[in-house]
Amino acid sequence: MIKMNFKQVLVLTVGVVGITFGATNVASADASAGGNQQYTAAQTTANNATAQAMTTSTSTSDSSVVSEALSLAQMNIPYVWAGESMSGMDCSGFTEWVYAHTTGISLGHNTVVQEGHVTKHTVAEAQPGDLLFWGSQGASYHVGIYIGSGKYVAAPAPGQNVSVQTVSGAFMPSFSGHVNG
């Protein structure tokens, strides 16, 4: 007999059916395919300039978040939809796990819920330990942890492991946020 709680059923249902908020489709982020964002050549160039301009400075709390994220990226943890354990994680399960284990902050296991725990700012203003979100605010579909120097850690997509990735114009976060704590 399979035991599932309400959150697991909801996440599974959302994953199978998909959700539409207004005119914005919420989709699984697939970094290798560029997610569901489409950019013009000019937008990609601007996104690349933003990625190159990102700064790096950290506080002690943010350093522990970055260290834990990097540690998990070395453990070959597979992407698992709705996962939030060492046996598998999805993007919001990964960020939830890192923050719960390093700061004691429970972000919730949903990108939109996690948006409610941050002070929003632009991607160019992201600092190590901040969350990077893909999709419009209130309808984000992917999240990762910025680690500095234009890099982030995330659980990217089925068939891939939690890993370090580079912020790029082809798969540019929409906004970032510093976790309130």
Automatic annotation (TrEMBL):
Pfam families: NLPC_P60. Keywords: Hydrolase, Protease, Signal, Thiol protease. The keyword Protease applies. Residues 59-181 form the NlpC/P60 domain. The keyword Signal applies. Residues 1-29 form the signal peptide. PANTHER family: MUREIN DD-ENDOPEPTIDASE MEPH-RELATED. Belongs to the peptidase C40 family. This is C40 family peptidase. It comes from Pediococcus inopinatus.
